[in-house]
Amino acid sequence: MKAAVYYAPGDIRVEDRPDPVPTPDNLIAEVHYCAICGTDKKLATIGDPRYPPARIVGHEMVGHLVHVGANVDGFALGERVTLATTVGCGECAYCGLGLTNMCPNSKPISQAFDGAFAERLAIPPLAIKGGNVLKVPDEVSDEVAALSEPLSCAINAQELVGVKEGDRVVIIGGGPLGALHAELAKALGAADVMISQRSEPRLSLLRRLKDVVVIDGGQEDVASVVHERTGGLGADVVIVAGPTREAYESSIYLARKGGAVSLFSSLPKDDPDVTWNSRVIHYGELRVVGASDSRPEHVAKGLRLMAAGKIDGDALITHQPPLSAIHAGLQLMIRKQCLKVLVDPLQ
Ligand SMILES: [Zn+2]
Ligand SMILES: [Zn+2]
């Protein structure tokens, strides 16, 4: 089968690999789509030491089951599935707390196991046991279902920061995840959703989203727009979805007193420090919360929101290259010319 294989930073090759081997304990899915994640873009540029060489990468997948091991309960041939990426060990204290995304011994799909930029994907027993395999409801298309994993990461963040009905939400950074955050905030009942972005063509792509106020951060003063739209108060929730120090440092000034900030994007490992006026957080009683990755329950919630028609996946998907053209897709991500890019291994 054809697969996209990571060898070294910037070195991803589309090549022939043996088909996955069916066993009594695994599932095999024919991959219909696998979306390109920011982590894949990282592999195509600076790399990531957690990924071993010759690993098939890609994890934001939707597939149809073509093998169900004799010992696997609850799945049938032909069923459509998607995955929660991070498979907890099931034995550590964090897994015991239900925080499998914090598991120090986790085995993520596409890191510890081969991933889904391939015609077929073997789903390992540990992922099945961990509840990481989720069935796609009939109402959700293959294309939109491929967004359920990145959406799940946004769901984890918005649950932690507490987005609720009537909130006024600002998202700093209009990349694929920022756009997903905007759709999610609307789905959770936010009354006003604003997203700031600096560059074209992403500004134009964001304008495809309905009922989202797109702020051109290159031309407009984001703080002024936010304060104007919130009667001078500031936002109930601010989500940092752009990995820059400026985004971090500006976030606390966009929130109202008693509001909350989600640090969703991470800063680079070698440049993580920020400077904050602690008095803004202290006197403003701000909650500043982190968010990392997601768990199966977040993917399940994403699928429910999609099935209810609350996420406009079609507005979020801007490109669908075949697997043989994955490098063109990665370039779109690197050049910030897309929202979500879905790789199609069967085309
Ligand atoms: Zn991802
Ligand atoms: Zn664990």
Main structural class:
alpha/beta
Number of beta strands = 16
Query: Which parts are unreliable, with pLDDT below 50 for 5 consecutive residues or more?
Result: none
Distance between the termini: 13 Å
Overall geometric form: globular
Give helix and strand order, one letter per element, not per position.
EEEHEEEHEHEHHEHEHEHEHEHEHHEHE
Helix content: 25-40%
Q: What compounds sit in this structure? A: zinc ion
Radius of gyration: 20 Å
Query: What fraction strand?
Result: 15-25%
Defining traits:
347 residues; alpha/beta; 6-stranded parallel beta sheet; 13 helices; globular; binds zinc ion
Description:
- Helix 5 packs across helix 6 and helix 5 (148-161) crosses helix 11.
- Strands 3, 5, 6, 7, 8, 15 and 16 form a 7-stranded mixed β-sheet that branches. A 6-stranded parallel β-sheet has the order 11-10-9-12-13-14, with helices on both faces.
- By secondary structure, the protein is an alpha/beta fold.
- The protein is built from 13 helices and 16 strands.
- The two termini are 13 Å apart.
- The mean pLDDT is 97.
- Residues 88-89, 91-92, 94-95, 103, 105 line the site of one zinc ion.
- One zinc ion (ZN) binds next to helix 5.
